C-alpha cells in the first residue's frame, strides 16, 4: 500500500499463517465532530470460515472505534452477498437505507478530473 493510504490492517493468525483479516480507516469529521471507523474488507481464508474469526475481528474493530471516540462503525457489502448480510445482522448491525453509494471509474473519473481519456496501451504519465 502507498504510504499515504491511511489504511490499517488487523489480522487473525495461526502461527505464521494469516487466517483472516480486516482493513479499515478512521475518517474525520463525522457527526458531533467525532470520527468514524470505515471497514473496507473483512476476509477469512476458506478453511477458517465459520470458526468465529470474523466476529472476533468485528468485535476488535468495534472496541477500537470506541477507544478512539468514534461515533460509528460503517462498511458495505455486495447486495448479492446474503451470507455476509445475515452475519452482520446477527451482530446487531442495521441496514442503512438512507444512503446511496456512488462511484466514478474509467472515463468518467478521467473526465471529472479534467484528464484526457486513455486508449488501451496508452499512459497519462509524462514521458
The average pLDDT is: 90
The radius of gyration is 18 Å
- N-to-C series of helices and strands: EEEHEHH
Number of strands: 4
Can you summarize this structure?
With 127 residues, this protein is of the alpha+beta class.
How does this model look, in words?
This protein is α+β, with helices and mostly antiparallel strands. The protein contains three helices and four strands, in the order E-E-E-H-E-H-H. It has a four-stranded mixed β-sheet with strand order 1-2-3-4, covered by helices on one side. Strand 1 (about 10-15) and strand 2 (about 15-25) form a beta hairpin. It is globular. The chain starts with 7 loop residues before the first strand and ends in a 14-residue tail after the last helix. The mean pLDDT is about 90.
Note the main attributes of this structure.
25% helix; globular; single chain; four-stranded mixed beta sheet; 4 strands; 127 residues; alpha+beta
